[in-house]
Design goal:
heterodimer, A: mainly alpha, ABC transporter involved in vitamin B12 uptake, BtuC, two-stranded antiparallel sheet, about 75% helix, about 0% strand, B: alpha/beta, Rossmann fold, six-stranded parallel sheet, about 15% strand
């Protein structure tokens, strides 16, 4: 019940944004075509936010996600170039991300390096590796069905919406179950709430944390495959700063950077709220700087509201 | 629709409402053309914007100028294109930040019945109405010849690249390197693989590092405004400005000042105003049913200290933005 109450404010925020722009841009905003547009624009950030939710729940942070997404998109393009199938290319991207995440997890759980520092290092390593592999250029890849996953005019659309969105929603639902219903998920929450207590209760803290970062890496890898789909090229300089959008989505959705709080539904609401806001302001011809100012204000407001709710008990 | 732009913080909602009110005739007589640059912070884009405004006045159409939220961010620019399609504009004039990544969204625009004119940077796509821009390779050739003339065809030269994946500057860089290899055997390229990055700060830092690494340089080629400015600042800072012949690209007040004081020796100038103007004009003509040429070169010239006051160069550099962008 408490968790649902925490979701009320972000949900009302999302509703407000959708209604506001439906009024301000009635011809272009509330159309199926535009919702399709926003849904494809949200897939990459949304997938990243699923993995990031686990990291933030555990009391950690992962700054390397943007770079890992870029590296994974390059891996997908390279796999396609090597004649692999599109499915194999997606797996290659996921695996690339998972390896980066696993390294993060080992550094954090075994060497006890602060998450901020370990992932800051990976941010540079993954970005540099992506540029190294591609020689600094974007790499082209042969046509496949991968871009179709995140295309508005997708041949595989279901209920008028692209497969990428359904994949996002299905995975978010699945991972919400993992977080709330499995021992692994409960351990993540326990570590984020109080690591010392969790350890005393017999939770395998290093093992759980390693898996959390590997899982986050795998989601960043999948997000990278989707980014490749959107760009149709492997792009080593893409997604700079995207980790901050992903973290913002989680925070707007009620996640606390001190750990133990947050959830999948909140993160999805946060991701869609930011996407609708950016899209609506474009359609209503608002200057870009307003977007940045407003999203910044919303992040601060979301956290302030959360604090206030906590004090009231 | 344009007037409330300069208003303060409280005017935001007024602005939203105003833009809403003016848009009602989008399906009526007034044609609305989206003009989408790669970024909005460099002066180059202001020139394109001015030209687009002039083009819209000439052709009697309305334009809607919208850049990506981050300069040179491909995904952000894709979003702007997608939102323009959602808005239902009548045509798109775009400077694509990538020669492949923008193909899919632009194809979607065409599928929705929105034609596309490409300006400034080329794109690997046949679906466009027309490409209007600088022949960038030729810009590099012109730059190489200017630098060779300054150095009497011999010496150690260095080239600092822009950022990885920038198509237009890559063409200039290739044009420069190939021309040096082919026409000027006396020029020795000592470094041509370092990237400055997409911001002026990162170009400045890279330029400093390059200057430290090579104490003996005779000539430098840089292929766009941020790299030229970063290089100029680094030269000034290290006290080597004026001792090395520098040929750069594009004109801003700071770069022209460098040219006048002998710290820069040549600036290859494009004609961004013409790109914006002809881009909007070509789209309006296309929408009116007139066939357009597939390729229009807007040309390059080299400005030097000596020809700065010639009418041809003056028109390219002393653009009074206020005449268009109030």
């Amino acid at each position: 019940m408490n968790r649902l109450r925490a979701l009320l404010a972000p949900f009302l925020g999302l509703l407000f944004v959708v209604l506001l722009f439906s009024v301000l841009a009635p011809e272009s905003f509330p159309t199926l075509y535009n919702f399709r547009t926003v849904s494809t624009q949200t897939v990459v950030v949304g997938l990243g936010a699923i993995g990031m939710s686990f990291v933030i729940m555990s009391g950690g942070i992962d700054l390397s996600v943007g770079s890992v997404i870029a590296l994974s998109s390059v891996a997908a393009a390279a796999a396609l170039n090597a004649g692999w199938s599109a499915a194999a290319a997606i797996l290659a991207a996921i695996l690339t991300g998972a390896i980066c995440g696993l390294v993060n997890g080992l550094l954090i759980a075994r060497l006890r390096i602060m998450p901020f520092i370990a992932t800051l290092g990976m941010m540079g390593i993954a970005r540099g590796t992506a540029k190294r592999i591609t020689g600094g250029q974007k790499i082209d890849a042969p046509a496949s069905w991968l871009p179709d996953l995140v295309s508005k005019s997708s041949a595989d659309a279901w209920l008028g919406l692209p497969p990428g969105l359904w994949i996002l929603l299905a995975l978010a639902a699945l991972m919400a179950g993992v977080l709330r219903r499995t021992p692994f998920g409960l351990h993540v929450v326990a570590i984020g709430s109080n690591e010392a207590t969790a350890r005393l209760c017999g939770v395998n803290v290093p093992g759980t944390l390693t898996r959390v970062y590997a899982l986050n890496g795998a989601f960043a890898g999948l997000a990278g495959a989707m980014l490749f789909g959107r760009l149709s090229v492997g792009e080593p300089t893409a997604a700079v700063g995207l980790e901050l959008d992903i973290i913002a989505a989680c925070v707007i959705g009620g996640a606390s950077l001190s750990g133990g709080e947050g959830g999948m539904l909140g993160a999805m609401i946060g991701a869609f709220l930011m996407a609708f806001l950016a899209n609506g302001m474009n359609l209503a011809q608002v200057e870009n700087y307003w977007q940045e100012i407003l999203i910044g204000a919303i992040i601060v407001a979301a956290v302030a509201l959360d604090r206030w709710r906590h004090r009231r008990g | 629709m344009r007037s409330p732009r300069k208003a303060g913080a409280l005017a935001m909602f007024a602005l939203l409402l105003a833009s809403c009110g003016g848009k009602a005739d989008a399906n009526g007589d007034a044609l609305l053309i989206a003009v989408i640059p790669k970024g909005t912070t460099h002066e180059f884009w202001k020139s394109i914007h001015s030209g687009a405004v002039q083009g819209s006045r000439d052709a009697g159409v309305a334009i809607y100028w919208k850049g990506p939220s981050k300069d040179d961010d491909r995904d952000a620019q894709i979003r702007v294109v997608e939102d323009a399609i959602s808005r239902g504009v009548d045509g798109i004039v775009i400077a694509p930040s990538d020669n492949r990544a923008l193909v899919r969204p632009l194809e979607e625009a065409v599928k929705e019945g929105i034609p596309v004119v490409v300006i400034d940077s080329p794109i690997d796509w046949e679906g466009k109405v027309s490409y209007i821009g600088t022949d960038n390779y030729q810009g590099g050739v012109v730059g190489a010849r200017a630098l060779a003339a300054l150095l009497d065809g011999k010496g150690k030269v260095l080239m600092m690249r822009y950022f990885e994946g920038s198509g237009s500057t890559m063409q200039r860089e290739i044009g420069f390197l190939e021309t040096v290899a082919k026409e000027f055997p006396g020029l020795d390229v000592i470094s041509a693989n370092q990237y400055g990055g997409s911001t002026t700060e990162s170009c400045y830092a890279t330029a400093e590092n390059l200057l430290n690494a090579y104490p003996q340089i005779d000539g430098i080629f840089v292929a766009c405004e941020p790299t030229t400015f970063g290089m100029l600042r680094a030269l000034q800072d290290s006290g080597r400005a004026g001792t090395i012949k520098v040929v750069g690209f594009d004109a801003t007040d700071k770069l022209l000042e460098g040219l006048r004081t002998g710290q820069l020796h040549g600036l290859v100038l494009q004609n961004p105003f013409k790109m914006g103007q002809m881009g909007v004009q070509a789209m309006a003509d296309h929408l009116a049913g007139h066939p357009q040429p597939k390729l229009v070169d807007t040309g390059t010239v080299v400005a030097t200290k000596d020809n700065l006051e010639s009418p041809e160069i003056r028109d390219l550099i002393h653009l009074d933005f206020d005449r268009w962008l109030k």
